[in-house]
Structure formats: structure tokens, C-alpha cells
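Researcher: Quick test of sequence recovery. C-alpha cells follow.
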């Protein structure tokens, strides 16, 4: 893990203690401010972008306990180390119970101070990464292995194993729904960084106004609404891998800042004067041709060559139809293992229909179809009549004999599925039209159709629709 340049506040009424801490810590590369009273220290801690506070328990104007309470009230995430005399170690233990990270007894050596500070900062970094990882885990779409018996998938797995050991940046190309994030995770999990974090960021889900602060972090007060400091996704991925999905949606300004991070291995959070060292491997993904975007001026040429060191192309599902049975059974068994539905397999005719389908939505579409079948089929074998009309037979054309309802209940179910199919088509076109009217701006499009932005974006992800309105489902 890369070392951070920390901003530290020392609160002690003894000027000599403040000066000693400042000299030792600044020699180690940290930025140090001092306060000679509890009141001044609490004010600085609440208003400043500090990573750590060293707090004396014995001060004339305000007790250290009261100062600790005030700091934790304003900045609960801020680490506090208590500075105390030997006679008050018991009080220091009480302070730890109230939220202090640790204590350093006076007198202390420079080495003791640096060890205490280093331990606190490392703990802060781990907690910060874990918080981001917990958020990312809620968004994971698939944790399965990269499945497929086709030669193209065998070649892809071999390619992943070869490039995983390197530190080079990777760009994953593929249509929407092909599993680009799954490929990125496989690269990470087979790399020397596997023990580090894997942070996934969907660029299309972030508005241009928020993208910079979400990626690079920001300090408290950097902009309206920045009520507390946040490290950003890049810093959260320190020591691991940062996956940037839909990189083509990044603005030219943000592209320039990302390029500087990749070249210098340093970043400066929005509104901060401090520079953080970062050790991150970047894997980008896109369903568009980045080189064509470079030629049109929509993507920086220097960033393109920086990201495209190792390109990986994920094939669409229609090019590996022989893998459909394996994938379909995998999704079916995963659902039934979780206690969902009665279906256990597919009839030969149903599987033939699945294999002949073009799958414009790729693996994601297949997974969603299987989930729908598990939820609606009350039989152990999924037959052709259970399949959606667009797979069982083109709507408006002659139905296969096996697709004709045989009972009133089957007719009722067919009507329900047809209505659902029509609704989904209307819903998809509704989203595309909203984005066209909003000029590709998700926030504006949501306002135009009187819908919350998060709900509109959820529909975009469901149907594989980009911000420019292009439909890949």
C-alpha cells in the first residue's frame, strides 16, 4: 500500500510539545498544524481537512475529554491519538473507550511518535477501503467463473492468465452485457494484487459535475454539499485494481486529470493542497471503438495509448452459441440452489431455441431470461412454450406447434407474457426517447419525464442503454 501524505493537527498547551511533534512529523513528510488551546484545536479540527489529531488531555481552557467529545461530534471518522502523562494513563484508556484511536505517554521518543501515527493512519486507510468495498459489493452483478467451452473463450482465459501477472493497464472491449466487469475481476483475482481492493466505477452512472469528486476525492467545503471529506474511488483502490466501466463517457477534462494520475501516480483531491501517492492498476472497459472517438476528438489520444497497453476483446454471445447451454444451465442451477422455482433443466427443443437466438443483450439478456423462467415456470423442464415469444418464435409469424397454448391456463400465461414483452419494448423506447430529448444528460432526461435519476439509470442498466440513447439490448 502506498504511503499517504497526511495532514495532522497537534493540540497541546505546551509549545515545546507542539514544536517537537511538528518537527518530527514534517521530517517524515506530513503536514502539521498546531493549536495551543483546546478551543482553538476543536475549531481547527472541525473546519480543516485533517487525517489525524494528536490531543493533550491536560489543558487549562478545556479538558481533553471535552475536546475529544467535540471533535468526534463534528468529525466522527477522524482518528485521535491522546498525548498524556504517565499519571493519567487510566484516563487515556477511558478516552479510547470514548472513540480515541490510541494514546502516547509523555515523554515519548520520535520513533514512538512515528509508530503511533503510522499505525493510526494505516488503520484509517483500511477502514476507508473497507467502507468503499462494502458499497461495491452491493452492486456486484456476477461472481461466477468465466464459463464457456468454445475455443474463443478458452483463448480468452489463457490471455487473462498471461496478462494478470503484469502491471500494465488493460482496456476491455465488448458489447453491453458481455461480462466486461467479470473479465476485469478475473484479471485482478489472478494478479499479485488479488489481496488488495477491486473498485468498480460505472462512469455512465456519474454526472459530469460529480465525476471528478467521486474519482479523485474531495475535502470538506470543497463545493456546495461537501459536508465531509471523501477519499474517492482512486484512493480507495490503492494497492489494488480500479475498474472504469464505460470509459468513453468520461469528459475530456476528467480524461486529462486521469492521465496525470496514471503518469505521476499522484492525485490531488478536489479543494485540497495535499498530494497523495497511489499505487493502482487501471482496467478500463467500453462498448465503443475508442480509436474512432480519438479521431473524432471525443477521446484524448494520449490517454487512449496509456489505457490501451493491453486490449482484450470479449466476444458477443451470438459468436459463441455453443456456450449457451452451459451458461443457461449455470444460471438455472444457481437460481434453484437458492430455493427459487421448480425448473431443473430445458427440453431439447427449448435449448435449441436458446442456441439459435441472436442474444442482442448478450450474457446479461440470457441471465435475465433464465431468471424470468425460474420465477414463472411451474415444471421441472422448461419447454418452448415457456420461452418468451421473441425466442420461441417471432411475434406476428407462425408459432411453432409446441408454442401454441394447450389449455386455458396456458393461454392465460401466454397473454401475460405477451403483455410483459410489449410493456418492456415500450419502456425501453421510453428510456431511449427521454435520453434523446435530454441530449444524453441523464439528470436532464429524468427531469423531463418527471422521474428520479436513480430510477431512470436503473432502467438504462436493465436494457443496456447508453447515455447517448444507443440500445444494446
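Model:
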Amino acid at each position: 500500500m502506498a504511503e499517504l501524505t497526511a495532514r495532522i493537527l497537534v493540540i497541546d498547551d505546551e509549545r515545546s510539545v507542539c514544536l517537537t511533534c511538528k518537527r518530527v512529523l514534517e521530517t517524515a513528510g506530513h503536514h502539521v498544524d498546531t493549536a495551543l488551546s483546546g478551543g482553538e484545536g476543536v475549531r481547527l479540527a472541525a473546519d480543516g481537512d485533517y487525517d489525524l489529531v494528536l490531543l493533550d488531555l491536560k489543558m487549562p481552557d478545556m479538558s481533553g475529554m471535552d475536546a475529544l467529545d467535540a471533535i468526534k461530534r463534528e468529525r466522527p471518522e477522524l482518528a485521535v491519538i491522546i498525548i498524556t502523562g504517565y499519571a493519567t494513563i487510566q484516563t487515556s484508556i477511558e478516552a479510547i473507550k470514548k472513540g480515541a484511536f490510541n494514546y502516547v505517554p509523555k515523554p515519548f521518543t520520535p520513533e514512538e511518535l512515528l509508530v503511533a501515527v503510522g499505525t493510526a493512519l494505516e488503520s484509517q486507510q483500511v477502514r476507508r477501503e473497507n467502507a468503499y468495498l462494502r458499497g461495491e459489493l452491493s452492486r456486484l452483478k456476477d461472481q461466477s467463473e468465466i464459463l464457456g467451452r468454445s475455443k474463443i473463450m478458452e483463448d480468452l482465459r489463457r490471455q487473462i492468465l498471461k496478462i494478470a501477472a503484469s502491471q500494465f493497464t488493460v482496456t476491455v472491449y465488448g458489447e453491453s452485457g458481455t461480462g466486461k466487469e467479470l473479465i476485469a475481476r478475473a484479471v485482478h483475482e489472478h494478479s499479485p494484487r488479488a489481496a488488495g481492493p477491486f473498485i468498480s466505477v460505472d462512469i455512465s452512472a456519474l454526472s459530469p459535475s460529480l465525476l471528478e469528486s467521486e474519482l479523485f476525492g474531495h475535502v470538506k467545503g470543497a463545493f456546495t454539499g461537501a459536508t465531509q471529506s471523501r477519499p474517492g474511488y482512486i484512493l480507495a483502490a490503492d494497492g489494488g485494481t480500479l475498474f472504469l466501466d464505460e470509459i468513453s463517457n468520461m469528459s475530456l477534462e476528467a480524461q486529462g486529470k486521469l492521465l496525470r494520475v496514471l503518469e505521476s501516480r499522484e492525485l490531488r483531491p478536489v479543494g485540497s493542497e495535499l498530494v497523495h501517492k497511489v499505487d493502482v492498476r487501471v482496467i478500463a472497459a467500453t462498448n465503443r471503438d475508442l480509436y474512432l472517438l480519438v479521431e473524432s476528438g471525443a477521446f484524448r489520444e494520449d490517454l487512449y495509448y496509456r489505457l490501451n497497453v493491453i486490449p482484450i476483446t470479449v466476444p458477443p454471445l451470438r459468436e459463441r452459441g455453443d456456450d449457451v447451454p452451459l451458461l443457461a444451465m449455470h444460471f438455472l442451477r444457481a437460481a434453484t440452489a437458492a430455493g427459487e422455482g421448480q425448473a431443473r433443466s430445458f427440453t431439447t427443443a427449448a435449448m435449441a431455441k436458446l442456441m439459435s437466438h441472436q442474444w442482442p443483450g448478450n450474457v446479461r439478456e440470457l441471465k435475465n431470461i433464465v431468471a424470468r423462467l425460474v420465477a414463472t415456470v411451474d415444471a421441472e423442464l422448461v419447454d418452448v412454450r415457456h420461452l418468451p415469444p421473441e425466442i420461441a418464435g417471432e411475434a406476428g409469424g407462425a408459432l411453432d406447434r409446441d408454442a401454441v397454448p394447450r389449455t386455458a391456463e396456458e393461454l392465460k400465461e401466454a397473454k401475460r407474457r405477451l403483455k410483459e414483452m410489449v410493456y418492456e419494448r415500450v419502456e425501453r423506447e421510453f428510456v431511449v426517447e427521454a435520453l434523446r430529448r435530454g441530449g444524453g444528460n441523464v439528470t436532464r432526461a429524468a427531469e423531463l419525464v418527471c422521474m428520479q435519476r436513480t430510477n431512470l439509470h436503473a432502467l438504462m442498466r436493465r436494457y443496456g442503454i447508453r447515455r447517448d440513447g444507443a440500445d444494446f439490448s
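DSSP finds 19 helices and 14 strands in the chain.
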